[in-house]
Write a structure and sequence with these properties.
This protein is 15% helix and 22% strand. It has three helices and four strands, in the order βααββαβ. It has helices spanning 41-45, 50-54, 83-87; strands at residues 31-35, 60-65, 68-73, 93-97. The structure holds iron/sulfur cluster (2 copies).
Length: 98
């Protein structure tokens, strides 16, 4: 979604609630996070969740894998900042070049 300068609301005000969903910020990413299930504490014993808590874009999502709840990434919005990998206590997340 893009707007011309003269279509942007005065002072850049957000006049439509919830419109950030339309901006797929994943296109900015140079690196993408990859999760190694075998190292993830959440899959082992249901603890941790630091990646989910710390992601500034809510791009770490809870999904289902083999009948278990597991974390994954929403690459439509993940900007590849690497905070999730930095916060992971078991190095279960690494970044790969796009
Ligand atoms: S790389 Fe950044 S934006 Fe992407 S999931 Fe991790 S913390 Fe979120
Ligand atoms: S921070 Fe690491 S260990 Fe914790 S839930 Fe996320 S991937 Fe799993």
């Amino acid at each position: 979604m893009s707007e011309k300068y003269n279509e942007i609301p005065i002072a850049g005000n957000i006049i439509e609630p919830g419109n950030s969903e339309k901006y797929k910020t994943g296109g900015w990413r140079a690196e993408r996070p990859i999760l190694s299930d075998e190292k993830c504490l959440w899959l082992k014993n249901g603890t941790c969740g630091r990646c989910w808590i710390f992601c500034p874009d809510m791009a770490v999502i809870l999904t289902e894998k083999d009948g278990k709840h597991a974390f994954a990434f929403n690459y439509d919005y993940c900007k590849g900042c690497g905070i999730c990998a930095n916060e992971c206590p078991t190095d279960a997340i690494h970044l790969e070049k796009e």
